[in-house]
Task: structure prediction
Amino acid sequence: MKTQIQYAKDGVITSEMRQVATAELVSPEWLRSEIAAGRIVIPKNKHHNFPVRGIGNGLSTKVNANFGTSERHCNMSEELAKMKAAITYGADAVMDLSTGGDLTTILQNVIGSSSVMVGTVPVYGVATRLLREGKPVAEMAVEDLFREIEAQAVMGVDFMTLHCGVTRSSLSFLENDERVTGIVSRGGALLKRWMTVNNCENPLYEQYDRILDVCKKHDVTISLGDGLRPGCGADATDRAQLSELLILGELVDRARDSGVQVMVEGPGHMPLDQIEANMRLMKRVCHNAPFYVLGPLVTDAAPGYDHIVGAIGGTVAAIHGADFLCYVTPAEHLCLPDIDDVRQGVMASRIAAHSADVVNKVKGAAQRDYLLSKARRDLDWEAIYEQALDPHIARERKEASESREEDHCTMCGNLCAVKNDRNID
Result:
């Protein structure tokens, strides 16, 4: 079997392409041509069956939700419940970032239970096992890292974050351009430590062809990680971030040429006025590869509300080129999220994604707003719930209010502007 991009280059429209075209209200042939050019990806491992979704140019902005056990708190059933909650509230993808417990069993359960695409960060698994054995990360064997990548591909992981752009060259820019927060990517920090202690190049960059071979065999989409992303607004758009981006652009071309689907991860913290330029620069350097961003977080001063901060940045990013938003929860920077944090994070990112889709004229986005607005004018509560991004909360709040049996809401009562404007008693 070929990969989706190989089929697309050969002029073949696969069943997965037809599924995405139907869901996105686009032509299958147009979609095929965009996949062939690498501007759209369909992350779907050959070993994982689920209703596929596309990410990239001209499609609706997608949302990812992270979850996973930690060294301090490890309960697989809790994490699976969070995953199910994320999917229930509309996440298009989930990432298992577990670092505690039996990682293989957890990932197998996640893939077996997920009805959306599943992503991972393979270096986490290797580092976690080393720490459990009382060994420093610097003792990581290169072959163990590649075995982990292949094992996860065989299990059915649909996309993998691989920090291939953290190289000796890109790290050198940290030496003469001091940062406030240094490296905040776990994968980036782990690889830097390994490279520094062993005085070696990043094996994910040096042996990139091995990654391409594994990903092509199983049709795993590479998500080129931003290991040197800025961890605060003061560090945004610095030399290290941009030097890594240049390397990622090179790796995008190599993946496409090898028949491997690829997307690129982007900055996490960034002042609002820098987002547009960063999105346009990334699209230029990476030849319009799908762009996957965390947030971006437009202020560092709102712990406990970072889901709102991320939604503000996510809307602006998606208007200017981001295709895939990684959610941020109220627990970001503070603690492990609970199920309600997951709900709030998913909904904040979905609101951001939809708001951008309206601006970008994605098919169906403005129509949803129109239908909800018309339902409000008609005081048609069932239609309002049907079009709402979160129908559960809309229905729950209305039915719990004093006006649950009335056509108006509690705020206005019989002073309802719609009723009075239309002369409705």
The chain has a mean pLDDT of 96. The first helix runs from residue 4 to 9. DSSP finds 19 helices and ten strands in the chain. The radius of gyration is 22 Å.
